[in-house]
Amino acid sequence: MVTFEVEDLDGNRQSIEAPDDMGLSLMEVLKASDYPVLATCGGMALCATCHVEVLEGKDGLGDASDVELDQLETLPELFPTSRLACQIRISDMLEGAVIKLRGEEN
Q1: Residue 106 vs residues 16, 35, 100: alpha-carbon distances, Å
Q2: Which residues cross the membrane (predicted)?
Q3: Could you tell me if residue 31 is inside a domain?
Q4: Alpha-carbon dihedral sign for residues 70, 88, 38, 35
C-alpha cells in the first residue's frame, strides 16, 4: 500500500491509501475515492480533465510523455509540476506525495 495526500479544489487535504500492486492509475484511485475528476477520455491522455499538480514528490514520478505534454499544453492554466492523473501509475514512488486537483469539476 502507498499513502499520499490529495488537496481538493477547496484546499482541504486528505490522506489516501492505495494498493501499489494492481497497476491502477492515480486517476482511477481519485475517481474511486469520490474526487470530482471528469476523466472524460477514460484515461487515454486525450482530454486533460484529470489535470493535477504535484506539490510534493514529483521527482520519483519520472517525466511526462510527449502525448501527456501535448495535452497539458492545451490547458488554460499550466503549472511547472502539472501532470495528467491518468498517466501516473500508483507505485511506491507516490509514497508521501502531495497531489493538488486542478481539473474541471463534474
Answers
A1: 20, 9, 16
A2: none
A3: yes
A4: negative
- Total residues belonging to the chain: 106
- List pLDDT tens digits, range 23-32: 999 999 999 9
Judge whether residue 73 has pLDDT over 90: yes
**86-102 pLDDT tens trace:** 999 999 999 999 999 99
Taken in order 88, 6, 75, 78, the sign of the CA dihedral is negative
User: How many structural domains are present in the chain?
Assistant: 1
Range of the domain at 13: 2-101
Cα-based angle 1, 66, 62 (whole degrees, multiple of 5): 35
Half-sphere exposure of 31 (CA within 13 A, CB side): 17
